[in-house]
Amino acid sequence: MEKVVIVGGGLGGLLLALLLERASLDYVVLERSDVAKMPLEGGGVISITSQIQPLLQQLGLLDALQRAAKPLSRITVLEVEQQPGQQPMIVGSIDSAFSFARYGYHTLAISRPELYNQLVDQIPPEKLLLGKQVQDVMQDDSVATCICTDGSSYQGIIIGADGAYSSVRLSLYRQLKDKGLLAAQDHRPLQYQYRALVGMTKPLDPNRFALIKSEHSDTRFWYVPMTGNRLCWMLDELLMEPMVCPEVEDWSMMPQAVLDMCINYRAMQSPLEGTLLGELFDLTPAGTIAALSREEGFFSTWIHGKVALMGD
């Protein structure tokens, strides 16, 4: 079998790499970042559902992930008005206990950096190539090639696991468009109308924030008690109109977006009694809050020749 060239060392790319590693198949991961591990301060939360945990158990990861995570007990959906003193209103509640009763596994809440670092530890360093920014992807009837900005190139089955702003997808779509083979739907750019402010607090005082004391994570959408007495939080902001995403991911405006959103929502009541959002902002390590566009788009082309895309 040909070498599998995975473009993007995020969660999806690393999990695919681990599956190939366990199956003794030849692969390499091209990651544009220069560092393999993520800092544990900051970052968002990800839920590991009961359906995927049998796979993680077969891969030998589940025990370590369970130690780093909190099992979800309940998800409460809240509606919050942007008015000082306005208490959040409960819209609905989902008891997560059914997950264990049905599947034998609790849904787990874990920080993205901790999950990422656990996966990185499973990949041999010589197969995770850092500082590899893919510039173009070329293919003919017999071979597909990734070309990086440093002049290096890699041939094999190309998997675009590089997120919403995928260099692999853009290269593939341009070539298909030139040949008249790209579906009309795939000509449309990604858009976003929601922007999310995301952070994770430093360890909190459990005597004041009773929500973090429990062995289980009682989630108040989107305020998730985590291990280590931390709280992951997220705030969605609806923009006035849909915005068109640039072709290349641009982080230059994020510091200003973080500042603007933190100012605009400081006085909003959080789901924690007696706590405004501004205090949660202040309890989050400096420089770790992120303002992320929630890109939306539907593509019909996911594979062509020896190039395939992974969804983001």
From TrEMBL:
Keywords: FAD, Flavoprotein, Oxidoreductase
Family: Belongs to the paxM FAD-dependent monooxygenase family.
MF (Gene Ontology): FAD binding; monooxygenase activity
Lineage, broadest ranks: Eukaryota, Fungi, Fungi incertae sedis, Mucoromycota, Mortierellomycotina
Protein name: FAD-binding domain-containing protein
InterPro entries noted in UniProt: FAD-bd, FAD/NAD-bd_sf, FAD_mOase_fung
Domain FAD-binding: from-to ranges: 3-174
